[in-house]
Write a structure and sequence with these properties.
By secondary structure, the chain is α/β, with parallel strands linked by helices. Helix content is about 25%, strand content about 20%. It has helices at about 50-55, 75-85, 120-125, 135-145, 165-175, 185-190; strands spanning about 1-5, 15-20, 65, 90-95, 105-110, 125-130, 155-160, 180.
Length: about 190
């Protein structure tokens, strides 16, 4: 769908330079998604792996985030292999709803209620990032935290449209459950893509 060089705005790698490759196509369909234009894969041009790698390599940052849409709808092995061969780190942001493919240096799973993440993807997650839309999301977050490995970092992130209402709840929750951390969409505060 799009590609751009920016600062990672969320989660464990927030604040780090990263090249984003946003793949078109999503069958999860969150009503609060901020990139709904990514859902229709056919609405976006197909690009070769070589052109994607060349564009990423043109920037000094060596971190490449593959996101979507839902990136695991595709076999990501050839893309991640080519990125690694070019000296890039591969990071992925996924709902985890499709089988894992590719070679990853960092996997962020952001589970969605509309299509459950697969246990295999949760077990391989380096980061679990749960978007909090209402108070019931805390129990749902704990259900998924019980399925990740012991080294997986846990983040609670307010849904942007409800940040004023849910951020105080997240702060209180993290204070009571300190294995969790707060994640903010800092790129939105910084007004960058």
């Amino acid at each position: 769908m799009e590609q751009f060089y920016t600062i990672q705005g969320e989660g464990a790698n927030a604040g780090r330079a990263a090249y984003f490759i946003r793949l078109g196509g999503c069958d999860v369909g969150c009503h609060w998604c901020d990139v709904k234009e990514s859902w229709d894969a056919g609405a976006h041009p197909r690009l070769s792996i070589a052109s994607l790698v060349e564009a990423a390599a043109a920037h000094p940052g060596r971190n490449v985030v593959i996101t979507g849409g839902e990136p695991l709808m595709y076999d990501l092995g050839p893309l991640t292999e080519a990125l690694h061969a070019a000296g890039m780190q591969t990071w992925m942001e996924t709902s985890g709803a499709h089988p894992l493919s590719g070679q990853w240096d960092w996997i962020c799973v952001s589970p969605k209620k509309f299509k459950a993440p697969l246990p295999e993807v949760l077990r391989n997650a380096h980061e679990l990032k749960v978007v909090v839309f209402n108070k019931s999301d805390f129990a749902w977050a704990e259900q998924h935290a019980a399925q990740v490995g012991p080294e997986c970092r846990l983040f609670l992130q307010p849904e942007w449209g409800k940040a004023a209402q849910v951020t105080p709840l997240i702060i209180d929750y993290v204070k009571q459950h300190p294995r969790w951390q707060v994640s903010l969409q800092t790129h939105k505060y910084l007004d960058i893509p």
